[in-house]
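Support case: user asked for a sample of complex input and structure output to validate their parser. Sending the pair below.
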Amino acid sequence: MINSLLNIGLAHFLALSLILFLMGLLGVLISRNMLRTIMSLFIMSVSAVINFVAFGYYCDTSMENANMISVFVLILAVIQTIIALVILYKIYQANEYLDAEKIKDKEN
Amino acid sequence: MVTNLIYFYFLFFGTIFCALEIIFAPMMYLSAISLFLFVCFSSLIYLYLNSVYLSVFQFILCGLFLSVYILLLIKKIGRINLMLVLAPASKIIVSSIFVLLLGGLFILYFFQEFDSSLYSFFNAVVEKSFGSVNFRHYLYPLSLVGVFVLVSAAVLRVFLDNSLAVEQSKEQEENKL
């Protein structure tokens, strides 16, 4: 057990990625503030990128494939975040609050 | 060896702590600052894994652009001191159980499928792809993607502005009637 903690390998990065993904998911589920929800989605995207880079480092010595995929995933994450923020800003202008529950209630 | 180990666990717990801070920070501005720190820590993790380009790329794109943009946005809408508001307790409990179950399932699946054959499975995937990709060739398309992001954000903003204006004029007409 201690030996596996001391020898850093692929499993450590996969564990980190899994923890970050689950935390991001928890943030999306429990947060009522939409800005925090968007940031949680970003955490999930970064966890996916860490996964790709770790596999690239341990399984593909050239690292080019992993870097390629990671950069595209990262760009997609940033696009998603920026577009979500723009939509959020417009929702705020229309409603004056960022609470998801209140917006849902208003729509109903 | 020891320094390497300490550095890794520093990054490991730093990243997790920042992610926790983003979700549970009592004030909104703390959350935005944590996002910046989270980006810094994850960039250092990429650097640890020899991905220098990706590390710099993420730091510039997310650290210097996205985090600052979010900070400016919450300042602009006057929500910099917005307190933490969570879902009702029942929803938090159900969500936590769901997330724990999902984590458990991930780990079970992982050990069952790839227990000792993890490396061989992914090596097979790598071997099936012929040759390696030259990353420098993709810098030009990536810059196009960047331009595309800015254009799409601008178009979306104009589109939403228009729809908001139409809605407001409709409401005004209804009020007049």
